[in-house]
Each structure stands twice: as structure tokens, then as C-alpha cells.
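Anyone have C-alpha cells for L-asparaginase? Sequence:
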Amino acid sequence: MQSAPQTLVIIGTGGTIAGASGSATDNVGYKAGSLSVESLVGAVPALAARSLEAEQLAQLDSKDMDHATWARLARRVREHLDRPEVRGVVITHGTDTLEETAYLLQRVLAPEKPVVLTAAMRPATAIQADGPQNLLDAVAVAESEGVRGVIVVVAGQVWSGLELRKSHSYRLDAFEAGPDAGPLAVVEEGAVRRFRDWPAGEALGATLLPEDATQWPWVEVLGSHAGADARSLEAWRAAGLQGLVLACTGNGTVNRALEAPVRALKQAGVPVWRTTRCAQGRIVGAKDEPAAALSPWAARVELMLSLLQR
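Reply: yep, here.
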């Protein structure tokens, strides 16, 4: 009888969780991605007895996450998940673009094994660093029976990679789920208490993502706001924009100054998707709007994936 897979692979990409500052009381003036993933694992004694592999894929401040790193990460995660001895993958990441990476990985991989992203709001050098507990919780979730899909574990809460939104700039519990959703589960002393189903869907395939960043479609997000000016949008169209996500006011409304250039984009064959800039809710009544329930940042990822499939 074949034994169940036991090995977890921890992939480091940098972020605040691997950040370092010259002062233990400085929680904002640090350099992200300073420490190796091996050192993060070594700082959590409870992980010493686990069957773990650590791999450094990148050491980025996640505000600088790029398409080439996304492509390499998706392929590497897929390679590890295909190994029969691997139970799941844990990814350490920065919080700034965590929601975008999680959304992308779920749509591309839709894994049957757990892929758990975790992060921190304070650097590893802080007096009360939150990274070690978050990493320990992420490993606990990845080891739990029945967990699947791309999920995020931060501050004891477990979020769907398809719903995650960063909602606070400083607090340790900086995330929520949208639209109008809650956490999938919580972690309590290493035990997972689940409320909803794990993420599911059809995998688009990691090979869909080109490693050459120039081969990714150019998709931008533009916010509609008071006093909107169409010149930036017109410049994008002239420069070859391939897709646009409108972060609309309220229930999908757009400043009238943007209406004509948006029509011109559509007539030129450039897809324009609408979502709301509101922190919660969706565009109600937009039956044919693919981004109605997505954040602007998830909508941008989804539109890029749509263009890559053409």
C-alpha cells in the first residue's frame, strides 16, 4: 500500500516576511526580501521536525512582482505538485500584490493539492514579527486533510485565492474577501476550522504564461473619478494598449469624460471590462460584464489570461 505524500515544499519570493530593518522597533523602514527562505524556516523551531524542502525562487519586494516571476513561479509550483511525494506547496510572499499572485495561481493551476501563500505585515526583525506564526499556520493548513486549491493564510485566517483583497495598509489582519465574502477557515492552535468549500475550477495550465515579459498582453487599470481626464487613456490607445479594466465609481458608472475614448477603444477591438472601485460589493445588473464581481486587480489578471488564450 502506497503511503500518503508527506513532503511540503516552501518556496520563497521575498516580501516583508523576509524583510530586515536596522531597528527592532521599525515596522515600516525595512528592506523587503532581505532574508532567505531557509532562514525563515529556521526561525520557527516547530518546523524542525517536519519533512520540508525550501527553495528560493525570488527575493522581491512584492510591489515589484513581475510577469516573468509569475510564469516561473507557476511552472515551479506545478512541477512540485506533480511529484508523488509532495503533499503541498507553501509560498512566502509580500502583501502588496499577494491577491494578484494568488488569483493568478488558482486560475492557472486549480490544484487538487494545497498551495498555501503566506505573508507578513512586519519584518522578520520586528519585536513582534508576525511572519513566524503565519508560516507555521500555513504549514499546518497545507498538512491538513482535504485541503486543496490556492489559499492564503495570514493572521490566523484562511482566504480563497479568488477572493482575497488587501484592505488595510498597516494592521496585522490586513485582508478580507470580496465581494461580501468571509474567510474559508481559521487556524486555531494548528487546527483548521473550515466554514466554506476550498477553491475549485478548471486549470488553464502553467504553460499558458510566457516567461518573456514582452509576450504578455498590455492591460491597464484606469480609475473613474471626479474631474476625470481622457488624455492618459488616449495616450495608452495610441501606444498600443491591448486591454483595459475600468475601476468604476459605485455600481459601474463612468465619468462622461471617459465615455468617448472608451467607445473608441472598443471600436478598435480592445476589450474594456468594468468593475467597481468600491472595497466591497459587485456591479449589480451587469449580466454580460465578466469583471462584475472582481476587484480591479483580479480583473486585470483575468483579462490578461483571456488575451493569452487567444
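The chain has seven helices and 13 strands.
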